[in-house]
Recover the amino acids of this structure.
């Protein structure tokens, strides 16, 4: 049997409990009081990221010189442009709150939602974004103008896993406690400490090696996996009719992919785009994997774990958030001519995946081993932020204080061969270091964009011959020599054949990836700054071949500079883009594009 040092006890590792905090604000300066209160409270607790929710009424008409025209009578592209302009103007007005957060070194995301039902809109955003703390103002005509006692309705209507703080005149008026106490013993001050074998370990000990702010939106699985009667399951229950309608009766053109467990379809639920996975069959193994994935994802929240929106249990359907950039496997292979991932994004993705694994391994009372980590199960959103999915094959291991290691005996093969722990294949023993092996293979693929088979030997040979650059993915840009070599060595060490030679995820892997990520972040910022000097393509007039001064939409649906298209009209009645006759010469100002161009020009000064 392996010695005591081979596998470190997972339940000795401590991860900070981290909340996702949102503030409901509007354009009124009284919302400043809400923001100030939230900053004073939560910054001292180590929370360095906030979300600002702004609910605006639905747009029913478009203002014109001749009066307001119903949206049903206006072309869709004009409606979209007007809505974007409204959103931009509101965003600018809310920048005062963003600046308040910046002075306290707090990251902030402004989230605008169009709805005539504030309560329902907030409820959907809370579920969608896994918010467990919401700060609102007391009901008044100036802050919430739609109905009286709106704050009470919000407190009563939002999901029970979210705590509502109601602020009045700069002070805490009331707290609508969540149900977290039914599944954990963490108070809202975040000063709770975990007791292990008679000793107390504080969160600050962990944050000294890994900055707490890097674990944005962590919520401890110790709270959520501790099952008791009445524990909260955080997902929405859909009917089969809703699933069918959302996926257009499982239309082929909405099919995203097909795997061993099920088929995935792009779907739309309550104006929210999601992804529905439908099981291929209802046999025992498939049902077990479905229930396992439902149990894990419905009780866990982490910024780099795929979010579960809901499920239709009777028909074996899971509804996830939609990830615009598909899987890491597809992006590494540039499937469908998608652009390659830059090296600095790959450094960041390696850290994100490792942090999610560490989170799973530290679950309480049961550690979670993913067991099927691979690029196909790592999904990317529109900003290339990665999230691990497909936890149906994961294993939960009881954290037993009397045990010297966290190991599970499993004689049935689970996972994908090239990513499967060799010692698991030999002995049937599964441990957190089984995921570390798979992480090593993923890191090597991030570097090379090569198939997993024989990739260890490929990179090892290249390093021994000092020819690592020859196996790197050239499409990723100019790799930094020293940092890339360090990442390659780390990937190989994670992929060692024997568990005892693989590095510890918390003490070794995460700190190295954290340092490499900081290098990558600097390069990413520099690249963004350089790209700002080149105007985006949609700023260029197709006639002038230069940035537009007064963008407007013509009858053909294309946007031109006003002076250029008027000059064109002097010689032709056809579209410059399609060469088809124009139905009219009426031009509609593209206010959204104009604002974007002006903002870009301002940054260039």
């Amino acid at each position: 049997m392996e010695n005591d040092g081979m596998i470190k006890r997972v339940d000795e590792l401590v991860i900070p409990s981290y909340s996702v905090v949102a503030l409901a604000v509007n354009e009124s300066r009284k919302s400043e009081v809400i923001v100030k209160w939230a900053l004073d409270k939560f910054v001292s607790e180590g929370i360095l990221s906030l979300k600002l929710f702004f609910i605006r009424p639905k747009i029913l008409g478009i203002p014109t010189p001749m009066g307001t025209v119903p949206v049903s009578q206006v072309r869709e592209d004009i409606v979209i442009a007007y809505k974007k302009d409204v959103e931009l103007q509101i965003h600018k007005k809310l920048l005062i709150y963003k600046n308040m957060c910046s002075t306290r070194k707090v990251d902030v995301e402004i989230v605008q939602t169009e709805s005539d039902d504030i309560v329902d809109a907030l409820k959907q955003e809370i579920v969608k974004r896994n918010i467990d703390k919401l700060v609102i103002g007391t009901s008044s005509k100036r802050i919430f103008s739609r109905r009286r006692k709106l704050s009470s309705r919000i407190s009563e209507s939002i999901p029970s896993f979210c705590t509502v703080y109601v602020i009045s005149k700069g002070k805490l008026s009331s707290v609508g406690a969540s149900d977290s106490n039914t599944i954990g013993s963490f108070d809202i001050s975040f000063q709770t400490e975990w007791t292990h074998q008679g000793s107390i370990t504080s969160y600050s000990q962990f944050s000294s090696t890994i900055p707490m702010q890097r674990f944005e939106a962590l919520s401890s699985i110790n709270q959520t996996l501790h099952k008791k009667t009445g524990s909260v399951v955080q997902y929405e229950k859909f009917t089969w009719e809703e699933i069918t309608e959302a996926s257009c009766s499982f239309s082929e053109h909405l099919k995203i992919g097909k795997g061993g467990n099920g088929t995935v379809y792009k779907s739309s639920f309550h104006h929210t785009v999601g992804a529905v996975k439908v099981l291929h069959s209802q046999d025992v193994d498939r049902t077990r994997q479905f229930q396992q994935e439902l149990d894990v994802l419905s009780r866990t929240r982490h910024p780099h774990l795929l979010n579960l929106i809901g499920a239709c249990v009777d028909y074996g359907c899971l509804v996830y958030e939609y990830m615009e950039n598909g899987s890491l496997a597809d992006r590494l292979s540039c499937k469908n001519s998608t652009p390659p991932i830059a090296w600095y994004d790959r450094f960041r993705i390696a850290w994100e995946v490792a942090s999610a694994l560490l989170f799973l391994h530290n679950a309480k009372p049961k550690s979670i081993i993913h067991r099927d980590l691979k690029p196909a199960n790592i999904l990317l959103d529109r900003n290339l932020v990665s999230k691990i999915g497909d936890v149906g094959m994961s294993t939960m291991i009881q954290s037993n204080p009397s045990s010297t290691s966290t190991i599970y005996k499993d004689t049935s093969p689970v996972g994908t061969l090239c990513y499967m722990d060799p010692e698991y294949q030999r002995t049937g023993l599964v441990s957190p270091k089984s995921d570390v092996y798979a992480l090593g293979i993923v890191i090597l693929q991030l570097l090379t964009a090569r198939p997993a088979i024989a990739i260890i030997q490929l990179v090892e040979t290249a390093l021994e011959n000092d020819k690592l650059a020859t196996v790197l993915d050239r499409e990723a840009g100019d790799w930094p020599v020293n940092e890339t070599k360090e990442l390659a060595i780390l990937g190989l060490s994670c992929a060692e054949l024997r568990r005892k030679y693989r590095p510890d995820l918390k003490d070794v892997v995460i700190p190295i990836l954290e340092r490499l990520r900081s290098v990558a972040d600097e390069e990413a910022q520099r690249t963004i700054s350089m790209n700002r000097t080149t105007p985006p393509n949609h700023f260029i007039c197709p006639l002038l071949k230069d940035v537009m001064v007064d963008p407007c939409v013509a009858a053909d649906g294309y946007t031109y500079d006003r002076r250029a298209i008027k000059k064109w009209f002097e010689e032709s009645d056809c579209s410059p883009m399609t060469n088809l006759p124009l139905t009219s010469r009426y031009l509609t100002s593209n206010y959204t594009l104009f604002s974007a161009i002006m903002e870009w020009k301002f940054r260039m000064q």
